[in-house]
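Subject: mismatched residue count in predicted assembly?

I count 402 residues in my input, but I want to confirm that the predicted structure covers every chain. Input:
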Amino acid sequence: MNKSTWESTVKPVVVLSVIALVVSFLLALVNSFTAPIIEENQKAATLAAYVDVMPTVSDAKTLEEVTDYTTENVTGVVKAEDGSIAIKAEEKGFDGGILTVIMGYDTNGTVTGIWVDASTQTKGIGSNVANDTFLAQFNGMDGTQNIAIGQGGFDAYSGATISSKALFAAINDCVNCYNELA
Amino acid sequence: MASENKSKVSILTNGIIKENPVLRLVLGTCSCLAVTTAVSSALGMGAAFTFVLVCSNILISLLRNVIPAKVHLPCYIVIIAGFVTIVQMVMHAYMDSLYTALGVFLPLIVVNCIILGRAEMFACKNNVVDSALDGVGMGIGYTLTVVLMATIREVLGSGTWLGFQVLPDSIARISIMTQAPGAFFCYGVLMAGCVWLEGKLDARIERKSCCDIDNLKKEG
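Triage response: the counts match. Full output below for your records.
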C-alpha cells in the first residue's frame, strides 16, 4: 500500500473509527455508574407518586406490589395494608412520547387521586394535561366505569387533543385493570 | 514573558465582551433564547455548556495533528456528542430536576454552533493550554450572558429571581418576557448594550464576521 492511499483513504477511516470506539467505551463506562442511580431515582419517584394518590398511605415501605394482572399498558400495581390500591398505566401520547398515569383507588373503587407525568409531551401544550386544576375532574370518579372525552362531564384539555386522548386511554387502562383485580 | 501572560489573559477575557459568543459572535442563540426563562436553568445550562466546551476544546486541540482534514467534522461531532452524553447521564443521575428543566436543550448542546465554532476556529489551530483558556473564557461569556438574560426575564416576567420572590405582588408581571418575543426584546437590548460597553471600554473593534476573527488574532 503506497503512502498516498494511506493518507487519503485509510487514515481518515481508522482515526474516525478509533475515536468513535474510545468515546463509546467511555460512555459505556459512565453509563454503568449512572444507570443504577437513575433507575433508583425513578423507582423512588414512582413510589412517591403512589403515596401521593393514596390518602390512607403515608409510607411507601408499607406498599405491596401486585403482579397478577394481564391488562395491557399497565406497568405496575401496588396494594396498601387497608386494601386500597394504586395502578400505573402508560400510553403513547404526542409524537410517541410516553404519558404515565397513576390512579389511586379506595376499597369501594372510588378514585382517590390521580398523578400524571406529561413531561414527554410538548411543553405548554400537551404538558398541560398534568395541571392539577384540570386533573381535579377525575378526583372522586367511579373507578370501575370506563370514561370518554366529552361524556359524563369529563373534558379534554382544549388544544391538547392527542395528549388528552392518551390520558383518557391510560385512565381506562387503570379502570380495566382495577375491574380485573377486583 | 509578560506579553505572553497578557495574551493568555486576553484569550480568557475575549469571550466575555470582545468576542462574547452570544452577543458578538451571535452563535448558540437557540439555546440562549430557550433556557433563559428561569435563572436556575440558565445557570445549569451555562455550567453544562462550559464543561463540554472546555473538554472538547482540550481534546480536539490534543488531537489536532492526528485528525485528518477529510473527516474533521465527524470527529469533532463524535467527541462533542460523547461529552454531552456524559453530562446528560451524570445530570440525570444526580440533578434530576435540572435535567427535566433543560429538557431537549441539553442533548442539543451537541449541535450548538459555539462549541463546533470554537473547535473549528480555535482549538484545531492552538495548543492545549490556550484552547482550554479559550473554552473557559467562552464558557464564562456564555454563562454570564444567559444568566443576565434570565435575570431580566425572570424578574420582569415572573417577579422572582432564582425562585425567590423579588417583586411585590402589587407590581404587575410582564408575562410576555417569559415567552419567545420577550426573549428577542431582551436579546436585542443586551446586544446593543454590549456594543455600547465595548465603545466605553475604548476597545471598539470593526464589525466582523466569524472568519475575520483569525485575522484579528494574527494581528494581535
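The mean pLDDT of chain B is 85. Marking this ticket as 'not a bug'.
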